[in-house]
Amino acid sequence: MKAIYRATILTGICILTPALLFAHDITSADQELLNSGSLWSYVYVGATHMLTGYDHLLFLTGVVFYLKNFKDIIKFITVFTVAHCLTLISATYLSINANEHLVDAVIALSVLYKGFENLGGFEKLRVKAPPLLGMVFLFGLIHGFGLSTRLQSFQLGQDQFLLKIISFNIGVEVGQILALIPIVFVITLSRKRTQFPAFYKAVNTYLVIAGIALFLYQMYGYYIGH
Which of 139, 150, 93, 81 is nearest to 112 (CA)? Predict the structure, then answer.
């Protein structure tokens, strides 16, 4: 079981960390696609952005790992979705912006936080963990602001401005659903295996490591940009 645990950690670090550091960058190809003016292009870019938004998906993976029944999964994902929709739409529409590296650094801390909580970090410190539903809502607001900073990096123009924001948001939700289906399936299936405790520990340890790596990367990006 220890061998499985170590192998999972090493494999995850080697394969996923490079992808995490360069996740969901804004590309000229995306801008060219949006220049077509089609609202469907915003849906498409929103969906692909979420599917490559590994920091968002890692946080959701941590949330799903902590929950044991489908009803709770739906409830918590709904709360997260409502929260990030609020900030994504409102911050973009009102042109509220911040340095994307700092926002993404906080998102990285949310990944670290969830892995730490899942591993019983608060219990080990003899500190009561904050209410999970409230924390998911809070982090959802921050994740939504991160999505908004990315969307505001595009040249959106003024024509159908709100509809473009909503279309991008719809795409994000589509991408989130497509990404969550295999995540929920794998975690649900793994719970039936005797190796689940080792798998659980390995994945959540990786969340902590990935959260730290992403945080340092974003702070470095902020530092060299100033």
Answer: 139
Spell 128-152 as b/e; 16+ CB within 10 A means b: eeeebeebbbebbbbbbbbbbbbbb
pLDDT tens across 20-39, in order? 444 555 567 777 778 876 89
Between the two ends of the chain, the Cα-to-Cα distance in Å is 46
**Distance between CA atoms of 61 and 135, rounded to whole angstroms?**
15
CA distance linking residue 119 with residue 47, whole number of Å: 31
Following DSSP, what letter does each residue of 1-29 receive, concatenated?
-HHHHHHHHHHHHHHHHHHHHTTT---HH
Q: How many whole angstroms separate alpha carbon 4 and alpha carbon 33?
A: 43
Between 25 and 42, residue with greater pLDDT? 42
CB 60 within 8 A of CB 80: yes
- Please give the helix or strand (H or E) that residue 210 lies within, else none: helix 196-224
Give the predicted TM-score (pTM) of the model. 0.86
- Comparing CA positions, the residue from 169, 175, 176, 170 lying closest to residue 150 is 169
- Say what angle helices 2-21 and 196-224 make with each other, to 10 degrees: 30
Confidence of residue 1 (pLDDT cuts 50, 70, 90): very low
Q: Are 220 and 75 a contacting pair, CB within 8 Å?
A: no
